[in-house]
Design goal:
The complex is a heterodimer of chains A (68) and B (542).
Chain A: E1 7-11, E2 19-23, H1 28-66
Antiparallel strand pairs in A: 1-2
Chain B: H1 3-26, H2 30-35, H3 42-65, H4 72-78, H5 81-113, H6 117-120, H7 125-138, H8 147-150, H9 153-164, H10 170-201, H11 206-217, H12 220-227, H13 235-262, H14 267-277, H15 281-291, H16 297-311, H17 313-324, H18 334-340, H19 344-357, E1 370-372, H20 384-395, H21 404-416, H22 429-451, H23 459-472, E2 473-475, H24 477-499, H25 503-507, H26 511-535
Antiparallel strand pairs in B: 1-2
Classes of the chains: A alpha+beta (68), B mainly alpha (542).
């Protein structure tokens, strides 16, 4: 990919994803890589959210049920 | 800029929170909060501000002394801390001050305007939070120290959805699930085919039509990104499509609640409509909470519809791949869409649902965290004074107008000092509970008869019986606390959502995608509105 290549900036407006820059003539392979990278970041985000929720739930149970 | 300067805003916010917490603790804010009707939250205000203030100062000090790395502590806690604190400060200011002030202004303006502006425009903490986020990002911009924290909004919103799982019963999930699969399935596929037909009608390239069909049909940005390689969309077409979806979604987010209120939709109906008609998950949550922020019924329904819609993505990718004639041997297979794109947060949602259903948060028979406990318990008894009142009334024959079963329930209440089953049955929990609940029903019947003036009881006796009934109706503290956390997660996530609504994101919409997007979006919203009004009844949550 040359530096001369024109880029398209897409404002996803999606909390957390923000701006994405993609080559104007992006081919299927690039789009696939982009999609797979988004899937992977979504998955990581989901896992972190799940872990944080379980920690919150544990703490709530500890202070409202098990320790009282 | 030195590290200390970078952390200065966080330190100032932390110090401000601690000072506020101490002032609130001293009782100096009591009269003001009484005017704002937020005095019941004073304890929470003290705890939250002091805890957050300490965390902010400790985190900022750690950031100044520690070299930033790529550890989880840096990524998820220390770097986003400034932004997280900023959003929380905004959320607290909105919930405890901006919303109550808006209510007071609305009430004062009612005689002049003839309506409550607060109700018509749904100016509750959700809408005010989003608007303040939009205002901040489009005027001063997101401060540099908060940029990383704002990115957390999306996953905090997902935490809210996961926590929401604790608030469903099996029956609700089953009923809502069936409704949502049929409605969402029909409208998702219907929108996809409508956009494809419009593309054919306006002679637009298949690449653009395909990506717009997915975006308008399923779940906005994620669907567009997933389908782009399948239909070989051009970058400019993606930008146009995403702009169209966002603009349409933002309008829906503000317009749907007002239309729902004007049409007299019930919380359940509105939840179903928002979950079907709005494209973006965060915008669905925002519209549901804007419509009904007092309780979470609307949100519960909307999220089930939203989750069902998200789960439809692989089906749409398959449909569009077949329509486009996708070649094989590429990196993004159908399998990877199903497996890699599977929304893991739904597993979390189901996990919380199962934990709740197994009785971890409150007894399995609870509903919305409320349950009846007639077992022997100090907290279920009437006070000694109330017992005296009941005993004197019994001796004086004040209960002569009651039926035999009602009289038995009162007699037993006086004997046991609480609503309970028979003492001798205490080892047989089922029988004990059954009798106890029957006695509670009889006592409620006495109160209803007294209200209807069928029996004459003194105010003290009625108050004592009322208290006895109230004492056995428990509210799970765990469920209440989990719900509070969930509401704060949503408030946080939605302010962050507002911060992502930029002029640039909206103005990138254009070309044929905006024409086709508006036609298909309005068709879907209008049709789903009537179908929901016709099909979805309130019995879903009863």
């Amino acid at each position: 990919m040359s530096d001369e290549e024109k880029k398209v900036t897409i404002e996803t407006g999606d909390a957390g994803k923000g701006t994405t820059v993609i080559s104007e003539d992006a081919n299927t392979e690039e789009l696939e890589e982009r999609a797979l990278s988004v899937f992977s970041s979504d998955r990581n985000e989901d896992i972190v959210a799940l872990v944080f929720c379980l920690i919150t739930t544990f703490l709530v149970l500890l202070f409202t049920k098990w320790l009282v | 800029m030195s590290k200390v300067q970078e952390q200065m805003p966080t330190l100032i916010m932390g110090a401000g929170l601690i000072i506020y917490g101490l002032i609130a603790k001293s009782g100096a804010l009591l009269s003001m909060t009484k005017v704002l009707h937020t005095h019941k939250t004073l304890d929470l205000q003290v705890t939250m501000t002091l805890v957050l203030g300490c965390i902010a100062i400790a985190g900022a000090l750690l950031n100044t002394t520690r070299k930033s790395g790529a550890t989880n502590l840096d990524t998820f806690v220390l770097r986003p801390l400034g932004g997280i604190i900023l959003i929380l400060v905004m959320a607290m200011a909105i919930r405890w001050y901006a919303e109550p002030v808006m209510k007071l202004i609305s009430k004062a303006l009612q005689p002049t305007l003839g309506f409550k502006i607060y109700k018509v425009l749904n100016l509750n903490y959700v809408v005010l939070g989003i608007l303040s986020g939009v205002l901040l990002t489009n005027t001063w911009g997101i401060p540099k120290f908060a940029a990383e924290g704002v990115k957390c909004a999306r996953f905090v919103l997902k935490m809210g959805v996961i926590m929401l799982g604790a608030r469903y019963s099996f029956a609700e999930l089953a009923k809502l699930g069936v409704y949502s699969v049929f409605l969402v399935g029909f409208f998702v596929l219907g929108t996809v085919f409508l956009v494809l037909w419009l593309g054919n009608l306006f002679k637009q390239p298949k690449t653009m039509t395909g990506v717009l069909a997915a975006g308008m049909g399923v779940c906005g940005v994620s669907a567009t990104v997933a389908v782009a390689p399948v239909v070989k969309a051009k970058s400019a077409e993606m930008a146009y499509t995403i702009g169209t979806i966002l603009s349409f979604g933002i309008i829906c987010m503000f317009v749907f609640p007002t239309i729902g209120k004007l049409a007299g939709m019930s919380p359940v109906q509105f939840g179903a409509w928002a979950g079907t008609g709005i494209l973006n998950s965060a915008q669905v949550a925002a519209a549901a909470l804007a419509f009904n922020a007092v309780d979470i019924e609307t949100l519960k329904v909307a999220e089930i519809f939203n989750i069902t819609r998200v789960l439809f993505l692989p089906v749409i990718v398959l449909v569009l791949a077949t329509w486009f004639g996708k070649e094989t041997g590429q990196k993004l297979s159908f399998k990877s869409v199903v497996i890699d794109k599977f929304p893991v947060f739904i597993i979390g949602f189901l996990l919380l649902f199962f934990m709740s259903s197994m009785g971890l948060f409150s007894p399995p028979s609870h509903y919305k965290g409320k349950y009846i406990d007639v077992s022997y318990n100090d907290r279920s008894q009437v006070t000694p004074e109330e017992w005296e009142v009941l005993n004197s009334a019994m001796t004086a024959g004040e209960f002569s107008g009651l039926t035999e079963t009602q009289l038995e329930a009162v007699t037993n209440l006086v004997e046991q000092r609480q609503i309970a089953g028979n003492y001798e049955d205490r080892s047989n929990k089922k029988a004990f509970d059954h009798v106890g609940r029957a006695r509670m029903t009889q006592l409620q019947g006495i109160l209803a008869a007294a209200k209807a003036k069928q029996v004459k009881l003194s105010g003290d006796v009625k108050a004592a019986i009322k208290h006895a009934v109230k004492q056995v109706k428990k509210k799970s503290k765990t469920v209440v606390t989990l719900t509070d956390f969930m509401i704060w997660f949503f408030a946080f996530g939605l302010i962050g959502l507002g911060m992502q609504i930029t002029k640039k994101a909206i103005t990138q919409a254009g070309g044929w995608p905006i024409v086709m997007g508006v036609i298909s979006g309005i068709t879907k919203a209008t049709l789903s509105f009537f179908v929901v009004l016709w099909l979805v009844k309130d019995v879903v949550l009863n």
